Amino acid sequence: MSAPNYPPPPSQNFYPPPPDGQAAQAHYPPPPSQAPATQYSPPPPAKDNQYPPPQQHFAPPPQQTIAQPPPQSTTPNPAPVAAAAPPDSFNANVASNMPGGAPSAAHFTSQAHVDDVGSFNGGAYRISHRDTNSVLTVQLAIGCPLHAKPGSMVAMSPTITLKGEIKFSMKKFITGSHMSMSTFTGPGELLLAPAMLGDVSSIRLSGSEVWNVGKDSFLAATDRVQKDLKAQSISKAMFSGEGLFNYRVSGTGILFISSFGAIIRKDLGEKEQYIIDNGHLVAWNCQYVIERVASGGILSNVAAGEGLVCKFTGPGSVFLQTRNQLAMAATLQGVKVN
User: Fold this and answer.
1) 14, 29, 143, 283: least buried by Cβ within 10 Å?
2) Three state DSSP letters for 48-96
3) Nearest alpha-carbon partner for 220 in 193, 246, 188, 244
4) Which domain does 176 fall in, by range?
């Protein structure tokens, strides 16, 4: 039985094969749907018998900053841009310009991320890596001493002499304060840092003012700065977050204090009042009282979660820290702090 012959599909055209030896010269008619195309002649091969030629590699350009021209606008007639307002049209440092009685930008004095650089008799200092990883770098001259908290040294030059001093007292023994003091004597470079993640700030003493510093906030001081441990009242010791004893610092020189978190300085005018939550005090030179901040009864005070606070009255200055050690410790232990 012979195989059936089927007609080709109507959409295809079949052409007879070219004669032998003339395949290269055969010209086939174009498809019905396309116009006749010109004959394509391939380019001659390269001289080195490689096609396509190998890719050429160029050396990178030298490292330099090239000013890029501004992008060209594709709009044929761009609209005119309104002129910017003069920079002094709004001054945020003036309280009268702020809406709703908001404080001006200069209300607080914060030196975060800005190196504190200064000098004193016999040396110079720089406070860098502000806010959380602050480091105090001191350059001491020959014979110039610097008193620091024990264990605060990070590094020092081999030419610096270190001497420890122990002063025993019942107040320090009861309160757990440091009864020893480290004295570094130049020449050379000294690096100091606090134990907590926080900032370091400097207070320049002129001899006429007295500062109260938390016993955990003292870091270092120059030679002519006097430091003594003084007791607070029972109410301040229980509710201020600073304990029964704190340091009373006076004299002439520079005092270096440390904090848990960032340090903010608040300057108060005559009879100006300011409220700071307990546990956030670092140093102060004005009077304060302990009072309840929330209005209403006991339930309102408990629900507010603030409890008793420190109310300062000017004139004077207060250094406060943005974190609370006791609240942080309770958080790490999984205790909810109201």
Assistant:
1) 14
2) CCCCCCCCCCCCCCCCCCCCCCCCCCCCCCCCCCCCCCCHHHCCCCCHH
3) 193
4) 108-332
Q: Is the pLDDT of residue 129 over 70?
A: yes
Domain count, the chain: 1
CA of 178: how far to CAs of 69, 87, 99, 181, 197, in Å? Answer: 63, 52, 49, 7, 20
185 occurs within a structural domain: yes
Q: Is residue 128 part of a domain?
A: yes
Residue 328 parent element (H or E): helix 325-332
For residue 318, give the nearest of 243, 242, 252 by alpha carbon.
Answer: 242
Quickly count helices (H) and strands (E) in the chain: 4, 19
Cβ neighbours for 298, distance < 8 A, ≥ 6 positions apart = none
Q: What is the CA radius of gyration of the chain?
A: 40
- pLDDT, one tens digit per residue, over 52-110 is 445 444 444 444 444 455 555 555 555 555 555 444 455 666 666 666 556 666 666 55
Asked if the structure places residue 260 within a domain, the reply is yes
Q: How far apart are CA 218 and CA 149, in angstroms?
A: 7
| CATH number for the domain harbouring residue 137 | 3.60.160.10
Q: Average of pLDDT values for 156-181?
A: 71
CB neighbours of 67 closer than 8 A, spacing ≥ 6? none
Residue 216 carries which side chain, given as an amino acid letter?
D
Encoding tokens for residue 330? Answer: 């309770």
Question: How does 307-333 read in b/e, with b if 16+ C-beta sit within 10 Å?
Answer: ebbbebebebbbbbbbbbbebbeeeee
Q: Is residue 326 part of a domain?
A: yes
**Global pTM?**
0.62
Mean pLDDT of 208-232: 89
